[in-house]
Specification:
With 173 residues, the chain is mostly helical. It has a single domain (2-172), classed as Four Helix Bundle (Hemerythrin (Met), subunit A), CATH 1.20.120.1630. Helix content is 71%, strand content 3%. The protein contains 5 helices and 2 strands. It has helices spanning 2-32, 43-63, 72-93, 121-135, 140-172; strands at residues 36-38, 101-103. The chain has a two-stranded antiparallel sheet. α4 runs antiparallel to α5 (140-172). Keywords: Membrane, Methyltransferase, Transferase, Transmembrane, Transmembrane helix.
Amino acid sequence: MIMGLVAVLLLVIVQRLFELQIAQRHRTALLARGAYEVGQGHYPFFVLLHSLFFVSLVGEVTLWHRTSPAWWPFAAVMLAVAQGLRLWCIRSLGVFWNTRIIVLPGAALVKKGPYRYLRHPNYLVVIIELLVLPLLFGAYGTSLVFSLANLVLLLWVRIPMEEAALAYKKTAQ
């Protein structure tokens, strides 16, 4: 059980670090083209939330001796689907994909890939991950607490801020 947890967490953490590199490269490129960042103040809370998520997951599984439920394959499939959706988001947005809110005045909104169907598909990926990754290992507390915390930050802070930035961008064109 612990080896499985370590293996999955290493994969996810390496993926996150790679994504942060992509995001930084995109941010640098967009800022060089005249873009600006919105909502820097809430970004550290997302970093903290995601960092504490991993600590909580390891703590709950190891300290409370959690075990994978019989239906863990369903959670694994959901996690794999979420990863596929994330890759589709990154590919569809190209240089506009980021972990931050970066606005390039005059740039058209991306309406391809999953963005044809959902306004914020990348946030759906994060919602799924925070819900099902802990469930793979029976960490129901981590799943519940961090899913709710993420939803609060997304629904009350991040998405309205991003929508306002996109609306401003649209009117400024």
